[in-house]
Amino acid sequence: MIKKFRLAAVIALSALAGVAHADRLDDIQKTGVLRVAAFDSNPPFGFVDPQSKQISGLDVDYAKELAAKLGVKLELVPTNPANRIPLLAANKVDIVLANFTITEERAKQVNFSIPYFASGQQFIAKKGVLKSADQLGSLRIGVDKGTTNEIVLREKYPTATLVAYDDTPFAFTALRNGNVQAITQDGPKLIGLLANVPDKQNYEIPPFSISDDLIGAGLPKGETRLTEYVNDFLRELEASGKAQQIYDRWFGPDTKTPLTRIFRIGDK
Amino acid sequence: MDFSVITNNLSYFLLGAWPHGPLGGAALTLVLSVCSALASGVLGLVFGVALAMTHGAAHQALVLFLGFFRAIPVLMLIFWTYFLLPIVFGFNVPGVGTVIVALSLIGGSYLAHSVYAGIRSLPPGQWQAAAALGLGRVQALRYVILPQALPIMLPSFLNQWIALIKDSSLAYVIGVGELSFVATQVSNREMVYPTEIFLFVALLYFLICSSLELGAGAIARRYGTAAKPT
Hints:
The structure holds 2 protein chains of 2 kinds.
Chain A: H1 2-17, H2 24-31, E1 33-39, E2 41-42, E3 46-48, E4 55-56, H3 58-70, E5 73-79, H4 84-89, E6 95-101, H5 104-107, E7 110-112, E8 117-126, E9 140-144, H6 148-156, E10 161-165, H7 168-176, E11 182-186, H8 187-195, E12 203-204, E13 212-220, H9 224-239, H10 242-251
Parallel strand pairs in A: 1-5, 1-6, 9-10, 9-11
Antiparallel strand pairs in A: 2-3, 3-4, 6-13, 7-13, 8-11, 8-12, 8-13
Chain B: H1 4-8, H2 10-15, H3 25-53, H4 56-71, H5 74-89, H6 95-120, H7 124-132, H8 137-167, H9 179-190, H10 194-222
Helix pairs in contact in B: 3-4, 3-6, 3-8, 3-9, 4-6, 5-6, 6-8, 7-8, 8-10, 9-10
């Protein structure tokens, strides 16, 4: 229900919003604040750190670097997957750094930066339940509302029964309780989730993926200067080795979620 | 059951990231509730009296206006105010303000009808007696009608305020970090303690709501009004 209202709000009214008032990059520098939407429930991309009580994670590190380059204060706004486009459309944030998959459909409503992360859509199931992608059509699968995972799964496996949840941890609770037989999300996000589950030996991420996704920063539609600024920022981050440092902090060999880096900024 | 998840995150549940970030958790729930309770009380009183004092078209217009706010879900009003006003009018309402405005308007509309019913519950003889003493309608309302009607309305106000405390949890839809929102964040991070966390959250809501009830009872007794403790 809410999701439909959100989409309706965005589609019907982003047209009214118009594109050109002041330039957003100027606004950010004038106000001295960069407002970034980040996940608050999706380690290691964005989650509330138990010690500092602040939102932390890979996406947040990118946000911190960007604010530092701009020389402005960083203000983090917690978001779930479905609120990302409304937050941009309603001018509540300047940029979305929340594991945001680049798609043509979304590009009609927001600007995307060049990709800074890549992943594929994968699954978590109880051990032994899910062996190959052929089984997906006959399963009950938990998805997150407002994600590309939901759309891809509906297109490729129309016979699967989909149950939509507000966020990945809710979907995982449903899996734990037996309401669904598998849940789907981007592979790295699932690895991050499973790393925090005390009885993780009962679950597995089967070694196949059903899509290749590129993750970028979401920016307000039509803000070309800000988008170019963020693109340059991302390229610099890769050139200086900072992008690798950030990656290693969350997915390096010594972390809870070791994952080989298969994508570098500028590859696509 | 392992309640160490509660003790480890106690300050986050109660205060959010404060003092190193915005106030959140149970403290923000209290702030939202107190502000909207006061505002809805004032709105309810003003609109309720207006209902009692108006006739004809003005009365009908007011009934329609209040009917609108009684008919839409709080969740929708919060969502639309937060995301729609900036898009359509370029008018930015912060999250906390949005929730207070939405709860006050809807709570106030409910209370207006309680106030109206309270005023109507007095026999017409009271108005006539006041008029016979030479009081105007406003004076009659202030010195004769409201002092008798307000105590009758107290249980309705209390009901509405308790409902409002619990409705403040709907602020989650726009990411305002009140009690149930921060509890969800912790639950999502810790993964396996939803029972402990949400039992604790239920206990906090119970404590907040019961203290309001006890406090209102104590005030009613002290000022010798009609509401008797049960």
